[in-house]
Every structure is written in structure tokens, then in C-alpha cells.
Amino acid sequence: GSEDAEGGVAVPHWSSRFAFIMAAVGSAVGLGNIWKFPYMTGTGGGAAFVLFYLGCVLMVGVPVLVAELMLGRRAQRGPIGALVALGRRYGGTPAWGLVAGMGVVAAFLILSFYSVIAGWALAYIPKLAVGAFAGATAQATGAIFDGLLADPLAMAGWHTLFMALTVVIVAQGVTGGIERAVTLLTPALFVMLVILAIYASVTGDFARGMAFLFTPDFSKLTTEVAISAAGQAFFSLSIGLGTMLAYGAYVGDNVSLPKMTLTIAAADTTCALVAGVAIFPIVFASGLDPAGGPGLVFVTLPVAFGAMPFGSLFGAVFFVLLAVAALTSSVSLLEPIVASLQERVRLPRIVLALGVAFLSWVLGFLTIFSFNRWSDIHPLGGGRTFFDLIDYATTNIMLPLGGVLLAVFAGWVLTREARVEEFGMGEGVVYRVWLFLVRFLAPAAIVIVALDALF
Ligand code: PFF
To answer: What are the backbone dihedrals phi and psi of residue 9, each rounded to the nearest 5 degrees, phi first?
Structure first.
């Protein structure tokens, strides 16, 4: 249970257990599932990436998610305050706050590009509504997407709109707005994804799509692919930067964290896989390159929308729902930053939300220009644009590092009593498996990856 001894300020609680699951699922399900997972799978070579990703979700992601929720509920504060207080109490040093500090920076960086990509989804709503893709071939959808990338002003406009929507919701406080949006709209998005997957399987190249997704060729599992699969697991589950920790602070004592975690991970993973099943049969049927990169979903799905009955309407609704799914995730990026700041800076919530979002919005221009004006600028070499670098630094380095440090805190630093109490299932085998994973496997994985990256 939550600990009054921590002296934490009272935080608002979710109105129900269901509302909490929905908010956490809303954070997890977003562009990461529908935009990023398919294109990373494509560039990662397919099934080997997918299998390694699933392994990471189960063996590292799920245990870390439990740890994060646990720390949040224990501390009853925003991420930085939480780790400072818990660190002082259990670890003898407030320096643990630095882990949350890194998470806040990561959230800020991710928000900057997340909003730009979500802007693409917004841009597609009117395009579909007016039938721009009716009867379009993959070449035509590709040209329309390239047209968007070549227009930084349009991208900036949609980025601005998306960031503004995020601020409006966060400024109102999370428990009201998010709950309502997620409860209805995430299931709706899921249903549409399933319909798309069925449609793509029937009309596209189902056999090749499935083989690509599920028949692994392990010679393709390079260190680079493994790292990106691990990073994707953290990104998709929203872990490693304090988002789930912030949400954990709002969870009542009666909620079982391990059970909630399984629900969140199952929903998140199912959405990603269904998105893959919807996209790859179209990729192969239309002769597209699976390794085509960040535009993959924006080029493939419109081919289906252009061919199916009522496709323009269906497609427009799909991108509305994708934008809403992105919104419930972007809100969960901004929220922990605002929650942390609120504890140290005496400014109204709205001012903090606006200020942080403004700075992140400005940073977003690095991503916008990465796809046009500055597409040839590779600041650190290696062919990586500003967008690639921000994405790489956050997804592949900061999130895994942060997540493992949180796991280490929960596994080694927290007292046994606190751990067992928060876990809420006694000290049976489930607890012991979890403890083993957070104590040994998660840290070992990160050490191996770090060593491999260095040498
Ligand atoms: N999990 C979100 C997605 O898959 O789109 C992205 C995200 C949200 C990552 C919140 C991290 C986070 F804290």
C-alpha cells in the first residue's frame, strides 16, 4: 500500500481499477505499435526481430513494468520526488532521483518527435476524407506521403495542433480526460485494426506477410537488431522513463500490480502484432520495400483504404483513432514531467504544461527538418539524422538504462516487506520468478548489451 510515512502529497486516484488499466493501456498503445513496430520489424529483417521483441517484453518488459508501478504506488509522488524520497529512505541517498531525472529528459525528447509523427496521422485525416487515396497504387500513396515530408510548413502545422491538444488534456489533469478517451476509443482502434488485418490477409500476400513476420531467420539477429528490439519493447510498454511510475502513484491499494501488468502487456503486444498482420501482406502484394522506414504504415494502409468499399470513410476514422491513441500516449509523456516539476516549482499546472510543451515543440523542428531540409545532415555520422539520433538515444539507450535501474531499485534496494506488500501475491513462485528477473536478468541483459556496444 501507499505509504503515508513518505509524507507524500495526496495525489488524485483513478476513479476505478478499470480506469487505471485503460489509462495505462492508453499510454502503451500508440504510434509505437502501429507506426514504429511495423517499420522497425521491416528494417530489422522480420521474424527474428519479432521473436526477440516478444522475448524482451516477457522477460524484461513485464518485470520492469511491475517494478515501476510498484515504486510509484509506494512513493505517491511524481517520478523525481518519488525516487528522491524512496532513495533517501531505502537506499540512503537521494541520488536515485537522477534516474528519474534522466527519464524526464527522455520523455521530453520523445515527445518532440512523437508529436511530429502524430501530426502525420492528423494530416492524413482530411486527405482520406476527401478521397485522396481512392484507387491509389502503392506508388501513388508513396508520392502523397513524400509530398507531406517535403512540406515542412504543413508538418509544422499538424505538429503544433497535436502538441496543443496534448497540453489541453494535461492542463486539465489526467484522471478526467484520459479515462474517457481511452475507454471508448482504444477498443475502437483495435477493432478497426482487426478488420484491416483480415482485409489485408484476404486481398494481400498473406503467405509472404506471415512468413516475414513469423518465420525467423536468426542470421538476421545482429546485435544492432537485438538492441533495437529491446529498445522497442521499452518504448512500446512506456517503461524506463517514469511514465508508469507516475501512473502507479495514482493506483489504489486494492489493485494487483502483476495482474494489471499482464493486461497492459498483452493489450500492447496484441495491437503491435495485429498492426503487423495488417501491414505486411499489403507490403508484399504491392511490391513495397519492407525496410522502407518510418513511412511504412503511411504508405501501405492507404493502399487498402483506396481499394476497399467505404475506404475513405474507414481510413479517415482510422487516422482519427490513431491520433487519439497517440494523444493518450503523448499525454503520458508530458504528465510525468509536469508532475515532477509541480513538486518543486510553484507555478500553476497549466503554465508548467505550456512551458514544457513549448520547448518540446521547438525541439520538434529538428525532427521535421530531418525529413526534408536537413535530411543529409548526420551530426554524429553513421547516416543518422537528428530524428534518428534522438530516437536512438532515447529508445535504445535511455529507456533500457532507466528501466533496469528502476528494476534494480525495486529488486535490491527496496526492503523485502515493501516489495512483497506492493507485489501483493505473497512470496510464491510468481513473486520469486519476478524477483529473479528484476535482480539478475534485467541487469545482466543491459551489461551484455553495453559491453557489446563498446567492444
Ligand atoms: N508507448 C507509446 C507508444 O507505443 O506509442 C510511446 C510512449 C509513451 C513511450 C509514453 C514512453 C512513454 F513514457
So the answer is: -70, 150
pLDDT tens sequence across 277-297: 999 999 999 999 999 999 999
Give CA–CA dist 290/211, Å, rounded. Answer: 13
Number of domains in the chain: 1
Separation of 287 CA from ligand 1 center, angstroms?
A: 31
Rounded-to-integer distance, Cα 267 and Cα 62, Å: 12
Grouping H, G, I as helix, E, B as strand and the rest as coil, residue 427 is: strand
What gap in Å lies between CA 112 and CA 181, rounded to an integer? Answer: 22
Domain with residue 196: its CATH number is: 1.20.1740.10
Cell of 376: 543529409
Q: Distance between CA atoms of 282 and 299, rounded to whole angstroms?
A: 10
pLDDT band at 8 (very low <50, low <70, confident <90, very high): very low
The dihedrals phi and psi of 425, each to the nearest 5 degrees, come to -130, 25
Range of the domain at 206: 4-454
The answer to whether 37 and 272 have CB atoms below 8 angstroms apart is: yes
367 close to ligand 1 (CB < 6 Angstrom): no
- Is residue 385 lining ligand 1, measured as CB closer than 6 Å? no
Query: Mapping DSSP to helix (H, G, I), strand (E, B) and coil, where does residue 135 land?
Result: coil
* 408 within 8 A of 247, measured Cβ to Cβ: no
Kindly provide the ipTM of the predicted complex, given to two decimals: 0.99
Q: What is the pLDDT of residues 87-117, one digit of tens each?
A: 999 999 999 999 999 999 999 999 999 999 9
Nearest to 47 by CA among 298, 174, 237, 221: 221
Q: pTM score, two decimals?
A: 0.95
Handedness of CA 375, 377, 381, 385 (dihedral sign): negative
3-state secondary structure of 425: strand
107 CB within 6 A, ligand 1 = yes
Phi, psi dihedrals of residue 446, rounded to the nearest 5°: -70, -35
Does ligand 1 come within 6 angstroms of the Cβ of 166? Answer: no
371 dihedral zone (left: phi>0; alpha: psi -120 to 50; beta)? alpha
